[in-house]
Structures are given as C-alpha cells and as structure tokens.
From TrEMBL:
Residues 11-217 form the DNA-directed RNA polymerase RpoA/D/Rpb3-type domain. It comes from Candidatus Amesbacteria bacterium GW2011_GWC2_45_19. Its EC number is 2.7.7.6. DNA-dependent RNA polymerase catalyzes the transcription of DNA into RNA using the four ribonucleoside triphosphates as substrates. It is an enzyme of class 2 (transferase). Residues 234-300 are annotated as: Alpha C-terminal domain (alpha-CTD). SUPFAM superfamilies: C-terminal domain of RNA polymerase alpha subunit, Insert subdomain of RNA polymerase alpha subunit, RBP11-like subunits of RNA polymerase. Homodimer. The RNAP catalytic core consists of 2 alpha, 1 beta, 1 beta' and 1 omega subunit. When a sigma factor is associated with the core the holoenzyme is formed, which can initiate transcription. One of its GO terms (molecular function) is DNA binding. Belongs to the RNA polymerase alpha chain family. The N-terminal domain is essential for RNAP assembly and basal transcription, whereas the C-terminal domain is involved in interaction with transcriptional regulators and with upstream promoter elements. Residues 1-216 are annotated as: Alpha N-terminal domain (alpha-NTD). This is DNA-directed RNA polymerase subunit alpha. HAMAP family: RNApol_bact_RpoA.
C-alpha cells in the first residue's frame, strides 16, 4: 500500500510498506533512477533573439546579457507532449519585466511557471523579441546534439525531466511479532508539469514493462506473427511510421529494423523495441508519446 502525504503542490511523500528485508533499498533505488531518467517532459531546445546573431553579446536596454537570458529560458517549464517540435514567441516592450507567461503558445501547450522573470527592460525604447523551439523528450539533451547552420539560432541544453528531486529512506517496521520488515519512504518533487503521484506511477509502470520482458521473453518470429494479426484488427494501424513525425535518428533506426507501419510498432513490446540498434528506453518513451497523440497504444 502507498499512503500519500502532500507536502506542497509539487512535492509529495509516499510510504510503501511492509516490504521484505532488503527490498526497501531495492525498490527505492530502482524507482529513484527511473524517476530521474524516464518521465517524459518538455523543454526549450533552441532560441533566437531579434537582432542578435550569436550568444556572446548584449541587447540594448536589457539588464541581462544573452548568456543569462538563455540560462533563464532553461528554467521555463512547459506542458507539452506532442511528437513534433513546437514554436513559441515572445515580444515585449519596456519598461518592466519580461516573464515566462508573456510567451505566445499554441492551444496544445501551457507554461507551469508563468510568473518566472526572464529579463528586465529599462525603458519604453527597449524591446525584447524571442522565438524558441520546444520539444518533448526524456532526461537531459546537450546542445551539441542539435547543431544548426541557421544564423542566429542558438541550441540550448535541455532538461526534459519534470522530476526535480527524489529522496528515499528505509526504516524498520513490524508485522505482528516480526520487526525486521522494511518501510520505504519516497519523497518526490516535480516542476509542476506533472504531479508526484503520476510520476511515481509512470516510473513503476516503466519498471514493470521491462521486467515483463524478462518473465515473458518474445522471439523475433512471434513478434512478427503478432504484428500481422494486430494489423488486421486495429483500425488505422496500417498507417506508415513516417506519419508519427519522429526524430530523424529514431525514424531511421525503426526503418532499418523493419518497422514500416504503426501496427508493427504497437504489436511489439516496449522492452523488445528498446533492444533495437540505436534505440533505448528514452527513444521508446518518445515513440510511445507519438503513438498516444494519434490514439494508439502498445498492446504488449
């Protein structure tokens, strides 16, 4: 059982008990690592400032230089789960503050910290123009992965994970006369784009999916048979994988592995798919998000 104690809106404490001796650390460490690496989120991945060609400069009338502005933009937390990159823009005149909530976003996205201050504008002649690209993903992605030749576009290090901090502790508890059972105390803090409870359930389900691949391993031939049967029963599953608009690296890996249709994806287990060359758990999460956006789910 998991009693829940709400510490704040983005911070919850969960207690899991009773557990056999040693399983407190076994579960605690596994959940902690999964929470940090496998919960999908969104972040700004590149940015362009009006009238600025590179990041080592300043904007007239703006207290912060471009480097500081980029650091501030990394702290903007967004609700967005689409598979395709999304464009957002900001156009603010002084005097006053430019905040995260000043960004203009599509209806499919929103900002979790709209009051976060990005910049201070000195006077009415000061103008700040920003256009940024937002992507959904997992974990951390360095700017070097998104090099561009477009003048003025600056790639940004992106932290997709909505989980800010995970702490766990293990205490002794008793069941009847036996006193050496474990009590796992798990404390989760998020950035507000996902609740701690939802993050915990997602992490647990991720572990279940991988462990099920060990309990019930699937051969390549049985996977192919399942793909053929599924394609005949799932409406729309004959659509091409290209229609998911996946990142180029993931799309190429799927194509080389023979996944041409959506039916071939949803008929394969996530643990099996993560074994494909150049894919992994993070790539599978991105594929899962893209499938959900179009009304499909993994069937295994």
């Amino acid at each position: 059982m998991i009693p829940q104690f709400t510490v704040s809106q983005n911070k919850n404490q969960f207690i899991i008990e009773p557990l056999p001796p040693g399983y407190g650390h076994t579960l605690g460490n596994a959940l902690r690592r999964t929470l940090y690496t496998s919960i999908p989120g969104a972040a700004i991945t590149s940015v362009k400032f009006g009238g600025i060609r590179h990041q080592f400069t300043a904007i007239g009338g703006v207290r912060e230089d471009v480097v500081q502005l980029i650091l501030n933009l990394k702290q903007v937390r967004l609700f967005y789960s689409g598979a395709e990159p999304m464009q957002i823009s900001l156009d603010v005149k002084g005097p006053g503050e430019a905040k995260a909530g000043d960004f203009k976003l599509p209806a499919t996205a929103s900002i979790a910290n709209p009051d976060f201050v990005l910049a201070h504008l000195a006077d009415k002649n000061t103008k700040l123009e920003i256009s940024a690209t937002v992507e959904s993903g997992l974990g951390y992605s360095p700017a070097e992965e998104r090099q561009t030749s477009t003048v003025g576009v600056i790639p940004v290090d992106a932290t997709f994970s909505p989980v800010v901090l995970v702490n766990y502790g293990v205490e002794a508890t008793r069941v009847g006369r036996v006193t050496n059972f474990d009590r796992l105390i798990l404390e989760i803090t998020t950035d507000g784009t996902v609740s701690p409870e939802s993050a915990l359930k997602t992490a647990a389900q991720t572990l279940v999916d991988f462990f099920s691949g060990i309990v019930k391993p699937q051969s390549a031939q049985s996977a192919q048979s399942a793909q053929s049967a599924q394609s005949a029963t799932v409406p729309g599953s004959i659509f091409s994988v290209e229609e998911l608009d996946l990142p180029t690296r993931i799309a190429n890996a799927l194509q080389k592995a023979g996944f041409d249709t959506i039916s071939s994806l949803i008929s394969t287990s996530k643990p099996e798919l993560s074994k494909v060359k150049n894919l992994g758990a993070k790539s599978v999460k991105i594929i899962e998000l893209a499938l959900r956006d179009r009304g499909f789910e993994f069937s295994l």
